[in-house]
Amino acid sequence: xxxxxxxxxxxxxxxxxxxxxxxxxxxxxxxxxxxxxxxxxxxxxxxxxxxxxxxxxxxxxxxxxxxxxxxxxxxxxxxxxxxxxxxxxxxxxxxxxxxxxxxxxxxxxxxxxxxxxxxxxxxxxxxxxxxxxxxxxxxxxxxxxxxxxxxxxxxx
Length: 156
Fold this sequence. Notes:
There is one protein chain. By secondary structure, this protein is of the alpha+beta class. The protein has helices spanning 27-71, 76-93; strands spanning 7-10, 16-19, 101-108, 117-127, 140-151. The protein contains two helices and five strands. The relative contact order is 0.15.
């Protein structure tokens, strides 16, 4: 049986080195094991932050586009359907499905009357990355929302 005690080795008058017994390390195995333990959570954190940032950009763009489309419509019903469609297209461009989002619209005064304002609010449940969707399981990391307000032209 080998001893792992430190043995003094003399090499000159002043220097003293300590040598461990027969140490056959496995640095590659240790590096791989520790690398996986530390790297996997960091990569997942980066993916989650990217998903959250994408959701934030998606709701801002969807609300802005929907409000702009609404004020350009001829009737409030037409404006609502076009605005909802524009918001869902903007969300799909960022990779989010329409069933994850809620789009709400409100008018200040009579809708589409000159000088009135239209506010569109988009709310999105951002899912966690790499988590499969199962019925009854909430895979949402966070809910982000945004609102945009546009004025109807006075002299349209």
